[in-house]
Write a structure and sequence with these properties.
With 300 residues, the protein is an alpha/beta fold. It contains 13 helices and five strands. A five-stranded parallel sheet has the order 2-3-1-4-5. α4 runs antiparallel to α6, α5 crosses α9 and α9 runs parallel beside α13.
Length: 300
């Protein structure tokens, strides 16, 4: 049984896990009643460190594919509901909205970000009361069973490195960033076709990918406990890619081995369907950043 990134808890702490879960419920009830929680004054063994593996994006870059492979690991637990795709994405956004954390749907701000970068972007932030309520709501939605590690996929976390660092004090979190070829990512969904000016939206998506990669290199690239992989490597060499990932995340690869395909499809159909003229424009926009990405994270 793997215990990601943490030494096993002492026996005295492990025996108190049920007590700690009851304390989570107490915190939730107190927050619902508007009463500040008191868990900060509890001895450390009442608040065991929970383990988590966050897949932080980038979106439309293979996050769902990666989850489908990793969720078969017996040490990981993933919150999923049938007929509700991306439930984990919506749940986290809903929790942030409930605590009034200032969550921003960046998809609505392509123009200012493309022109100015993320210099004016502020991550969600919490005061102590909001923090207590956020912790209670997050635990209620996601708290894994003892000896299990939470697997959470949420592309919005790509833009929340400081938030993760500051507002999960009782979690030991490792992160996975997955990156895809920029041109393929830009064309991977048909959202842009529904815009009033589709071509302009497509090129805005390309510029936003560049800005987002700048954000990655500034905030994630050299951060400890972050493992970055290429979507293309996951498709062309899934076994080798997952073995490297499991080693970095302190997971045993053996339980995944029987479920690991020899090859996965690298979906390029949306890109191939684009007019050559649009392919050229997108390629020109992402070219310099793509070279940087390929230098640090080459396709095998």
């Amino acid at each position: 049984m793997s215990n990601i990134g943490n030494t096993p808890c002492p026996a005295s702490a492990c025996t108190l896990v049920p007590r700690a879960k009851r304390l989570d419920k107490i915190v939730f009830i107190r927050c619902a009643l508007g009463i500040p929680p008191r868990t900060a004054h509890l001895p450390p063994y009442f608040c065991p460190m929970h383990q988590a593996l966050f897949i932080v994006g980038y979106w439309n870059s293979g996050t769902t594919l990666l989850v489908d492979l990793l969720r078969k690991h017996p040490d990981l637990t993933f919150r999923h509901a049938r007929f509700k795709p991306n439930l984990e994405d919506r749940t986290l956004a809903k929790i942030l909205a409930q605590v009034q954390a200032g969550f921003i749907d960046l998809g609505q701000y392509y123009q200012p970000i493309n022109s100015q970068g993320f210099q004016h972007y502020q991550e969600p932030s919490l005061d102590p009361t909001q923090q207590a309520r956020f912790t209670a709501l997050f635990h209620k939605a996601y708290l894994p069973k003892p000896q299990k590690t939470l697997l959470l996929k949420n592309p919005w976390l790509w833009f929340m490195p400081r938030f993760i660092h500051a507002h999960f004090p009782d979690w030991h979190i490792k992160k996975i960033a997955i990156i895809r070829d920029g041109a393929m990512q830009v064309a991977s969904k048909d959202y842009w076709l529904r815009a009033e000016e589709p071509e302009r939206m497509l090129l805005a998506r390309a510029k936003f990918w560049v800005r987002s990669m700048e954000y990655f290199f500034e905030h994630w690239h050299n951060q400890p406990n972050v493992y970055t992989l290429r979507y293309e490597n996951l498709c062309y060499a899934p076994r080798q890619t997952l073995m490297s990932l499991c080693e970095a995340m302190s997971l045993d690869f053996a339980p995944l081995a029987p479920h690991c395909p020899a090859l996965l499809e690298n979906r390029r159909d949306k890109w191939d369907a684009l007019e050559k003229r649009l392919q050229l424009h997108v390629s020109e926009i992402v070219a310099d950043m793509q070279l940087r990405v390929d230098h640090h994270f080459p396709v095998w």
